[in-house]
Amino acid sequence: MKFTALFVLSMLYQAYGYCAVSPEQETLVMSKKLRAIPDEEWKTLAGDRMEEKYEIQKGDTLYDISKKLFGDGRYWPKIWALNNNAITNPMQ
To answer: Where are the alpha helices (DSSP H) in the chain?
Structure first.
């Protein structure tokens, strides 16, 4: 598996306790390696939380919500995809 220089640098900095790469940069690097989550797999991952309502708090991001609900912020694209009629483009 090939890794980008930014990813390798991020891992080295994290290993030595430095934070030179922001969470956003790290997510961008990882997003290039991610695959879409099939609906059946999502049902297993999300479980009962699929039907749960979440009240948006001031300052929330989809990443934050994903981390609160599923323990991993990287599920934010799935949250957006499932709610795209109610959520404007999070990248704008």
So the answer is: 5-15, 23-31, 39-46, 62-70, 76-82
Per-residue pLDDT reduced to its tens digit, 10-53: 665 566 555 566 777 777 776 677 677 888 888 888 888 878 88
The Cα 14–Cα 44 span in angstroms is 31
Taking CA atoms, 69 is separated from 20, 33, 65, 75, in Å, by: 27, 23, 6, 10
Q: Which of 67, 89, 71 is nearest to 80 (CA)?
A: 89
**For the chain, what are the domain ranges?**
1-34, 36-92
Backbone Cα Rg of the chain:
15
At 3, is the pLDDT very low, low, confident or very high (cuts 50, 70, 90)? low
User: What whole-number distance in Å separates Cα of residue 32 and Cα of residue 74?
Assistant: 12
Q: Decide: helix, strand or coil at residue 48.
A: helix
Please give the residue that has the higher pLDDT: either 34 or 86.
86
